[in-house]
Amino acid sequence: MEQIHLIKRSVEIMKGGDKAALATIIRTKGSTPRKAGSKMIVYDSGRIEGTIGGGCGEAEVIEKALEVIKMNRHSQLQIDLTKGLFYEDGGICGGIMDVFIEPL
Amino acid sequence: MNPDMYKKLEDTIHYRKDIFLLTITDHSDSRLIGSKALLHTDGKLYTHSPLPADLKSKLIDSCHKFITKKQSGTVRFFCRNEMVECFAEYFPAPLHLIVAGAGHVCEPIAKMGKMLGFYVTVIDDRPEFANRSRFPDIDDVVCESYITYFRNAQITDKTYILLITRGHKFDVLSLTELLNRGENPAYIGMIGSRRRISGVFQEIRKDYPTENFEHLYTPVGLDIGAETPAEIAVSVMAEILKVKNQKSGYSLSEKIKEQAKKGFREGAGTWNKYTL
Q1: Do A11 and B25 touch (CB under 8 A)?
Q2: What percent of chain B has pLDDT over 90?
């Protein structure tokens, strides 16, 4: 029940006033490290909670999430993992995933 | 999501019912993006944000296929000639683990059950054992007689029952109640020595002479030489996972050794399945 825990955290953040964004994988194609529904909370400090797949594309999502926090506006991001087969940190993935990012 | 909606989501899962969380992820009216709603499996929609009525009914219609398929997914549809995208996230009701008998072995089993995502109920008729201070993180701690509990408990194919009571008398009472009900839980396991098990079977056969106990796992657990409560918990929970996932319970390496002898040529696909 990891996803529900992250939803609970995001409800707490909305009450508590921390600045953060919630990223959720909403669609995947091919071999992605995590399935639709996987979530990650990104704080404005860059700290994260949860994961949407480790090194595979996570850095891109964090960057976009910081923008979402700043602009206070939803965004969608497509992560293409088919280009580099071997990421520097060892992740081996070969799919595409759509990530929905919402400000909290 | 607002706290009320979260409470509803949590409560539904707590009462062991499937539910979907809908999020509008794209809409030409950007104010609607991020709106959330809960979709129950009976098709009822709960929402906090003021969504237009026609959008609500389109949401229900478009997401109904996910209820049937029991899975998350994203759907696109048109509402008033405008494209709407919605992500429907599936929250399946957790499997239910009932541990009857709140003694020393129960503690690590209940804890491990939680770790593995089960909704865990601990039941014992002794208040000094079945109490919150002994099981602070467990979903339900019930103190009542085994007969009463098993007479009324909700039992489905998502229910896993462990009988680890303090004496074979209580196992007999619990098992008899379960047999009376005629429900089909996913698993009934009963701890015990050969002597205790044969005693229980003799008692039960008085009322159910044809009972063959085929669905009953006793003694409980996989054969890993478990002795301490923690070891027994590993052995028992491993067996429950084996039943849940319908697997052999063998060491994964055994299969690989066979394939290694053949140079992995034949089992390449299987090898990938086990390593991923």
Answers
A1: no
A2: 60
